[in-house]
User: Fold these one by one.
Assistant:
Number 1:
Amino acid sequence: MSRSDVMLDILKKTCLHPVCRKTPPALKYRRLFLSELIKRHESTGFEPLDELYDALAEVMGAEEETVCYKTYFLPSGQLISLEENVAMVSDGTTGLVTWEAALYLAEWAMENTHVFSGRAVLELGSGSGLTGVAVCYACKPKTYVFTDCHQSVLHRLRQNIQNNGLNQGGGGTGVSVRVEELDWENARDEELQRIGAETVIAADVVYDPEIVGCLVRLLAKLVKNPKKVPEVYISSTIRNPGTYTCFKRELEKAGLKAVAAVTHPVTQVFPYDRVSSIEIIRVHAAA
């Protein structure tokens, strides 16, 4: 296979692939990718490839968008495509994009399926839905409840769940899936008991000192439930050590204990900055 054939093959398996055409990544990402592909081809001294320049011209002529898609392949070959906002913060929330701790938690879940398999799972602050969709496909929980409090996030969640074949009820996975609004500050005991979670997870929810208090109070309600005590796992990217220390201090004040998860993900499934300081803790009632 010649160098030109290799470049054409790469183009067909990326920007011209049916998945990319149906659920395209951000325009900026595609521009950078194609520009780099052309640069590398030109450095070989081969004749220019019209197909590469046509693809770049199409992207350069496209209008800027506020939303894009991110697509991932699980080790099983299952494809996950999520619609996300291009901007990290929009509509007054950070929940319309996927953050590193969610990718980290999803990798950890796939290596610790016993924490989820056959259980009722509750996710706090589900965001775009990456962790939940991955858990539903790879870990086969009995039920999975995606939650958030922002209407734009809930709307996006429902879209992404439907687009990935889960729907309300779980699609072909056999998992009963629901999307619910859950306000941490005003969550009622009856509401939590109805969900009946056996495993509770959350990713990148410890980022603002102002919401630490209501998060800890909610965790205390869950962990101190006399009828059913769930396992609780929180995945956090430690961007601000002060905020993270504040979170752990508030857990102690509430009679809760945080223990770092024993293992870290071994298999690299998703692309994210591996240098980032990310930690999964298990929260339980202090002895």
Number 2:
Amino acid sequence: MSYRYSAALQTAVYAALTGDAGVIAVLGDAIYDAPLPGPATEIPETYALIGEERVRDGSTKTNDGAVHELTVSVFTAAEGFRTAKEAAGAICAALDDGDLTLDVGHLVALRFLSARADRKSARTPRRIVLRFQAVIEAAD
């Protein structure tokens, strides 16, 4: 088992989202892999953040591998959850069963696991946290 596939997976997920017409239609270029700095006036109304990840061994007797559980979160200051749900749906369409090419390793499967929509308080943005599972093995 190795964490060596993690950066390649994040790069591929980012490329898939920023290159998908459905995601672009809802989010434009508001897809990030780090919390947004700066004042609230500079933060897009709706954006996606590639976030947390958990990795466990996915090796077999003959091949090194890892199972990654990663999150992509959608945040919106828009009224209601509709905008966030549209963005989350576009992200799922772009990633679920996606055929992403990794710089390191080979993506065997990428699938949607779950989603959670919430809002902590009236002053915080609405959020949808999407969880995906990626199974990666060493490339031949």
Number 3:
Amino acid sequence: MEFRILGSVQIHDERFGVRIVPAGAKQRALLGALLVRAGQAVPAECLVEELWGGQPPVNAANALQAHVARLRRLLPAPGPGGPRHVWLRTSPLGYTLSLGPAATDAQRFHRLVGQGRELAATAPGRAVEVLREGLALWRGPALQGSGQGPICSAEAALLEESRLRALEVLYDVCLRADRCAEITGELEELVAVHPLRERFHEQLMTALHRCGRRAEALSTYDRARRRLARDLGIGPGQVLSRRREAILRSCEPAADSADRAGAGTAGQGGDELGVLREELVRLRGHVELLRRQQRELSEQVARLTAHHPCGP
């Protein structure tokens, strides 16, 4: 049994080859929120906020109970002779989804990425296979179609950041293994979708240069520089600038980006400014989400009592 959130919310029962897809946005939001907080009691007030935002129905408690009852009917029953498992429990503290022997595709993704990081230094070819296996679990944006409630939207943003960092690790390993030609197309697509993420630009420049496409590598730098100046009012960071200088000299800098594959973070080797810059870009990329969540949480705090906290 596997619950899937790397895309639209789904339940896969491998015993019978059955895929269960919750019908309706409210059912998807409810299951998504409970999966994000699996093993924890989620107060009813938080689930009402997740499903209806600042406009709950007149009798929100009854409406929520009806959705919970429908979700219980949706959850798989035990197979013939199999042990009975209570998926969803109700308590004074709220509703708790117990995964039991089941797992989520997000857990599998994180496990595979961790294995890929460990293999990067000693077995780069195998590391590429494992990392691609983990990334292949993604069917679309995390928790797609589960609404914009604070629980699901915050988790979706965290998962997306994990996906992008896994891609950075993958491409560093590919560069280390001299598999540049196979990643240039992928990186070109990524810099178009994430134009403020300097790491992808730097990796693309490296791959293009090693493929003998020096002019295109330098053009990649120029496009990144213009976009950073236009959108953020800043210039390229040290890592990106050093890559350009190395290409102009037609040599590799001492601290090559591929040597950072095992850690999977940008700007190691003392480049604290590079780390801060990447954090700035990441936070600015999520600024609208954070502003919306701040408004929603302020409204929620005004309605809830101290006896029913919504924290994890």
Number 4:
Amino acid sequence: MSDLSDMTWKRSSRSAHAGQCVEVARTPGAIGIRESKNPRAGHLTANPAQWSAFLDGVKSGRYDL
């Protein structure tokens, strides 16, 4: 797990303020993904190519979200 503790975590402007959102932090070599409801539980890390492929899949409807 990469140390992204000093990074600025952001969430979508479309998210509700109920604390049940996905937050993302970016560095040049890694993207951190965590749940806003429990940010101390840890995060997932993806490299930029993995994150881009995931976003492309979401946008194309590949995942049942």
